[in-house]
Here is the input.
Amino acid sequence: MKILRLGDKYIQHVLKLVSHRDYRFSKETCVVTGTKLVRDLGKRYRFKEIICSRPSHPDLATLNFDELHVTEPRILRKIAELEEFDGLIGTLTLPARRSIKEITHPRLLLCLDYIEDLGLMGTLLRTAVSFQWQAVFFLPNCADPFSSRCIRASQGALFNIPHCKGNMEDLQKLCRRGQLTLSVPHPAGVDVSSDAYEPPKGQALLLREEYTTPWAPPREALKIKVPDPWRGHPKGTPDGEEFDFRALDVAVQGGILMHHIKHTHFAEVSRTPFLASRQGRVFWAIFLTFGLCAADDRAWTSAKSACSGCLWFPVN
Here is the structure.
């Protein structure tokens, strides 16, 4: 098998996918770096290409892909944007972006604006998936969540959760339609950990980096405090100072809020990762067509029959 060099057309194509947002979207393709992440996503997705330093890599046997390319470790490091790297790299079709109208009746919506650091963006997305939030809304002033560095930091989160993009007016319309309360962290806000706090029907949590441009939250937004994670701890905060969430970066603030809101006020809400995938959209159409519900065995049987031959269909 030919070992590809830096000047080869395919390697230049992959490097352009890594570095150019518009090129990624024109090709509808993203780059996934890291053996574990490639292996995890490979359980549910077929890769367009796999790139590695040797055709005998032990994980190749477990992956589905169209093409295999072999190149030098130094080129793998360049693609992965890491100083030390000799793992697997894969290219995947971008996960489907939903139209705003397709985000129907979410009760936990993470909204991101002015998140410019790829690591923070990835951490917030990974946290949203871990804590079973149901969808993500990107406002225009965010880093590209399909940068290979963000995909690595998020551990492929957007392959597991529906997402859409719009402006503030679009977000406000979605909140009104879905009966969501738009909420923003604020030091003088409502204490969501108080016994007197009554949670809304649904929550849209809007987060932004703390050192970006000045702003005023929308007038109708509910201002909420980030709960003190050391409340009730006999020793208090580790440094003995009063808890002030403004000293935390947005990923930590968001993690505390997402965990508290989900597990304290919306413990019954769950998320189905499968519905975030392209195949899941087909399944959702079948769901609507057959009027599928958990209690209706006949509808489930009809859907299974309609999907016979679809490798992605969850038969168990």
In short: The mean pLDDT is 85. The longest strand covers residues 181-191. Residues 255 and 282 are 32 Å apart (CA to CA). Residues 100-265 form a domain with the Alpha/beta knot fold (CATH 3.40.1280.10).
